[in-house]
Description:
With 244 residues, the protein is mainly α. It contains eleven helices and no strands. It has helices at 2-19, 24-33, 38-61, 67-82, 85-91, 94-113, 128-144, 150-160, 165-189, 195-216, 221-243. It comes from Malaciobacter mytili LMG 24559.
Amino acid sequence: MIIELLFLGLITGFISGFFGVGGGMILVPLLIFIGFTMKEAIAISIMQMVFSSIFGSFLNLKKSLDVLKDGIFIGLGGTIGGLFSGYIISNVSNLSLQYLFIAIVVFSIVRIFFSPAEPKEEPKKQNILLLMFIGFIIGLIAMSIGVGGSIMLTPILVGFMNYSLKKATSLGLFFVVFSSIAGFSSLSYHGQMLYEEGFYVGIASLVGVYFGIKAKNLIHSNSYKKYILFLNLSVLILMISKTF
């Protein structure tokens, strides 16, 4: 099983770096596919996110500090929301969490499909309290289904706040740093964390993140949008096949 976890970590890390996601949107379905329960998959996924999001954000910030402007306030809200995720996971059924996961992926597909890869206007200046509220809601929901939150945050940034798709994914990965640490703390407190499995996946993901970010910087924005939609559709099909 260790070899399988290392392999999944490598794949998830690349996806995390390339798409600016925590990796849970692909890791959770794959873990369920190889035999883990939804709650076990969520725990492993969250621990992996701590590794990949910190390393990935460090690589992104070396190129641009723009993600810090709104990212810190959204991240603080996400930290607060993520702290409640352990309670939700402990009291909600596996099947209900899977339905919620599917709904979030559908939302992301629809919003990104109808949004331009490059905005016609500059990003809108947002109220700090609004940014923190958005982060809180995303952190609460995302950590409860084992994703970092980028899958929800990216379509909001692109569709409502005029962010370019690439900048939105960089900010989304930065957000995952906050939400995943909060989620890790909450699940550990509630006795839901799988430390050994999460460690193997997390360590392997670091290699994948490095090459994923390098690949993202080589892709044109319009092509990048198609890749994101393809990823989301693939995850949706995989998750539906394991739920219904």
